[in-house]
Amino acid sequence: MNTVNKLLIALGESTELQPDKWSNEHLAESGRKKWVANIVPVELLKRNVKSAVESLVTLNESGNFYESFPDEILSPDYGDKWGRIANYIEINNRAIAEMHADRTKNGILSTIKLLPAVPPSAKSWANCIILSQVFPNIFGDGFNKAPDEENSIYGIKLNAGYSGNIIDFDITDKITPEEQFKALNDLAHIHGLKTGFRTVISADQIKVAVPDRNDAGFDWNNPQHQELFINEHVKLLKTGFEAVFIDSAKHIGGYDMANYTGVGALPSYEQMQYILHEIRERARSTSISFVGEKSTGDFERYENLGLTAGTAFIEPDNFDEVKNWSEKLKYSKEYAPGVEVSNDNDEGGKSYEDRLNRIHSSILGYEFASDKLPSFMQMADLFPLRYDTNTHALMMHNPSYSTDGTPESHWENLFTKDDGRNYNRRVAELFAQSMNL
Fold first, then answer.
1. Closest of 207, 216, 219 to residue 152, by C-alpha
2. Residue 239 confidence (pLDDT)
3. Within 10 A of 350 (CB to CB), how many other CB atoms are there?
4. Does the pLDDT of residue 295 top 90, yes or no?
5. Three-state SS across the chain?
6. pLDDT digits (tens, 9 = 90+) for 316-343
7. Are 130 and 289 in contact (CB under 8 A)?
8. Angle at 233 between CA 144 and CA 342, to 5 degrees
9. What pLDDT, on a 0 to 100 scale, did the predictor assign at position 297?
10. Quick check: 124 pLDDT over 90?
11. Model confidence over 65-122: pLDDT tens digits?
12. How confident is the model at residue 417 (pLDDT cuts 50, 70, 90)?
């Protein structure tokens, strides 16, 4: 049985699917590409998982409706170097998880529900979602706290499975955490998306769970810790993820440490070369995209490291500058620096018009689609957040905005409302322009 059907059964649902009328009533389309738009996220998040599956099957590019989810769904094929020109969209799957009083859970189910509203890949390049959290965080995993209390996603625990914020542990007797990730990835693939996740490499931001003992600090000089880091990432990639976003990648090997804001030692340059090579080898995939945070400036250095794309080099507010850099780098097919609409440190403040302009530059700033630069954006660039929070605050903290203790109230209050709906419609119009280039 495929993992999507296994997930539906674990949730007490039938595997028989029906066309989704709601999706067709909220349709954005460009040629054969379809997604839902002119929405606010609560409209999708309050639906059940089966409705999300039916939505994704209804919207799929082939035009075929599947009365039961197919046993084999392949990732969109853009060749081994797909990551060099992709758009990466980070989804804070913890922020959209279910908030039940002080508990946070089932972020993977919320991510599945939101997938129909993420624009699918274009004719010439992929859209790839990046999950903010997969590993347990070390400051209160599974719980939400007040908006000013520490609960950072940037501190992770290895050798401890996956986050209680993300996996539905109530059904793991019927479907394992790895199978839940596989189901998410298959559903993203049928929607024409690639998938990846964020990781950290700053040693003091990583703990290692040790049975019957206190957690150990991570040490890059410990061969067992290095091996654990490799294997934890390989295990995830084997569930269908194809990209890894590496926090603080610019500083690997001690580069530009005056601007390093992480905590703890980083791997050496040669060590990280080995790690990335081993991850690709053990995952048996030549198409994995490694995206380095701010890995720009010395392009050859990052290409030789094994990275595919970098962020925050090209000024996104200037369309002509983006297009000129696309021309300059068109022969660099292994690695390219990228354009950033916003990043995980974004503290808000940009107007909707500024964000739309940045998206326009990022997805349309080229002469030929094959020369497109990679781009990186956040969930808030598609679905604006409420005005008293921002992307970085939600990475550092995990508040519930529920007024009655229910997940539905949190989802309703996490995002803006009517103006957010109108903004989402305009984002869809921009993506629609690029779909068939």
1. 207
2. 98
3. 18
4. no
5. CCHHHHHHHHCCCCCCCCCCHHHHHCEEEECCEEEECCCCCHHHHCCCHHHHHHHHHHHCCCCCCCCCCCCCCCCCCCCCCHHHCCEEEEECCCCCCEEECCEEECHHHHHHHHHHHCCCCCCCCCEEEEECCCCCECCCCCECCCCCCCCCCCCEEECCCCCCCCCCHHHCCCCCHHHHHHHHHHHHHHCCCEEEEEECCCHHHEEECCCCCCCEECCCCCHHHHHHHHHHHHHHHCCCCCEEEECCHHHCCCCCHHHCCCCCCCCCHHHHHHHHHHHHHHHCCCCCEEEECCCCCCHHHHHHHCCCEECCCECCCCHHHHHHHHHHCCCCCCCECCEECCCCCCCCCCCHHHHHHHHHHHHHCCCCHHHCCCEEEEHHHCCCECCCCCHHHHHHCCCCCCCCCCHHHHHHHHECCHHHHHHHHHHHHHHHHHCCC
6. 999 999 999 999 999 999 999 999 999 9
7. no
8. 55
9. 78
10. yes
11. 999 999 999 999 999 999 999 999 999 999 999 999 999 999 999 999 999 999 999 9
12. very high
Locus of tokens 């010439």: 124
- CA torsion through residues 385, 390, 396, 399, sign: negative
Percent of the chain with pLDDT strictly greater than 70: 100
